[in-house]
Design a protein that fits this description.
Function: Catalyzes the conversion of N-formimidoyl-L-glutamate to L-glutamate and formamide.
Family: Belongs to the arginase family.
Pathway: Amino-acid degradation; L-histidine degradation into L-glutamate; L-glutamate from N-formimidoyl-L-glutamate (hydrolase route): step 1/1
Number of strands: 8
Number of domains: 1
CATH superfamily: Ureohydrolase domain
GO molecular function: formimidoylglutamase activity
Structural class: alpha/beta
Order of helices and strands: HEHHEHEHEHEHEHEHEH
Largest sheet: 8 strands, parallel
Bound molecules: N-(iminomethyl)-L-glutamic acid, manganese (II) ion
Strand order of the largest sheet: 2-1-3-8-7-4-5-6
Oligomer: single chain
CATH topology: Arginase, Chain A
Enzyme class: hydrolase
Length: about 325
């Protein structure tokens, strides 16, 4: 059915045996494949960003995030399965999204929390496909929370990194479901009036980047909670261009304002605590434009926080 490849070698500093020295590279692929844990899945794709006329390079995002995750200190409870990469071949994005959907579905049905590393935001349509097909979702209401400067609701003939949530809306409608989609961090100048109108037409609730400053963390938390409470299963999708360009320069479209990392981390922690959180993807990392691996480190910090929170680890 699917044939993902695992090319990455998880290596990093080794301070000796014992859980007090444990790092991510020690936590990967050491447990039985069937033991529920965090499932890392790469989606090697440039095709969505290319079609959306952006800066290509996201194809190397998964390797860059894995390298930044590998040396991070890991709690004893953390259990990670690297299920390898799905690669878009010869520009056939639709085929790649379908194959990604199949591995996401398998990971969900095995009881894991899949964390998919993009790829541009076209990754999201593959993630959604797997989630909708999985037993975890069944016929329940999926809620998608997108941390992003953009709506990604473009109406285009051809799917791209700018269209995934329009595709989800249409698919959900065809299946007889509602479209439960919210965006945190929308940049007003980053989205035309036509996109704001589409969001209104589809009933999309959103917070502007200027409504997500540190002093407004509590309002962001309440907004997120209201959304969690309104659905059955939650899919968190993180477009790294939601962050300020100084912590995320390596993306196709860097933010001119951005939601502070502390606020994004708080939302991630809040979602990770919810048993409704079923799947996460982190997209748009473009290593070609990264600076000192800043964006990769930021992405890894977000994933580390979600995985740690999910594993039930608390510092003494
Ligand atoms: N993934 C989406 N990207 C944005 C790109 C915006 C830009 O290039 O400025 C979009 O299509 O809206
Ligand atoms: Mn996006
Ligand atoms: Mn974006």
């Amino acid at each position: 059915m699917t044939n993902p490849t695992i090319q990455h070698t998880w290596t990093g500093r080794d301070d000796g045996p014992g859980h007090e020295h444990r790092r991510w590279h020690h936590a990967v692929n050491t447990a039985q494949a069937g033991t529920p844990g965090i499932a890392i899945l790469g989606f090697r794709s440039d095709e969505g960003v290319r079609r959306n006329k952006g800066r290509v390079g996201a194809v190397d995002g998964p390797a860059s995030i894995r390298s930044a995750l590998a040396p991070m200190a890991a709690p004893a409870e953390l259990l990670v399965h690297d299920l390898g990469d799905t690669t878009v071949v010869d520009g056939n994005l639709e085929d790649g999204q379908e194959r990604l959907g199949a591995v996401v579905r398998q990971a969900l049905d095995a009881g894991h929390l899949p964390v998919i590393l993009g790829g541009g935001h076209e990754t999201a349509f593959g993630t959604y496909t797997g989630l909708r097909a999985s037993q975890v979702t069944d016929e329940r209401r999926i809620g998608i929370i997108n941390l992003d400067a953009h709506f990604d609701l473009r109406a285009e003939e051809i799917p791209s990194s700018g269209t995934p949530f329009r595709q989800v809306a249409e698919t959900e409608r065809a299946l007889g479901h509602g479209f439960n989609y919210t965006v945190v961090g929308i940049s007003q100048p980053g989205n035309t009036e036509a996109l704001f109108q589409t969001a209104r037409d589809l009933g999309v609730k959103y917070l502007l980047d200027e409504e997500c400053t540190e002093s407004k963390t509590e309002q962001v938390r309440q907004f997120t909670q209201d959304f969690i409470d309104s659905v059955d299963v939650v899919y968190l999708t993180i477009d790294l261009d939601v962050l300020p360009a100084y912590v995320a320069p390596g993306v196709s479209a860097p933010a001119s304002y951005g939601v502070p990392l502390s606020v994004v981390l708080e939302v991630c922690r809040q979602l990770a605590r919810s048993p409704k959180l079923a799947v996460v993807d982190v997209v748009e990392l473009n290593p070609r434009f990264d600076v000192d691996s800043r964006t990769a480190r930021t992405a890894s910090r977000l994933i580390h926080t979600i995985a740690t929170e999910r594993s039930g680890h608390r510092h003494a």
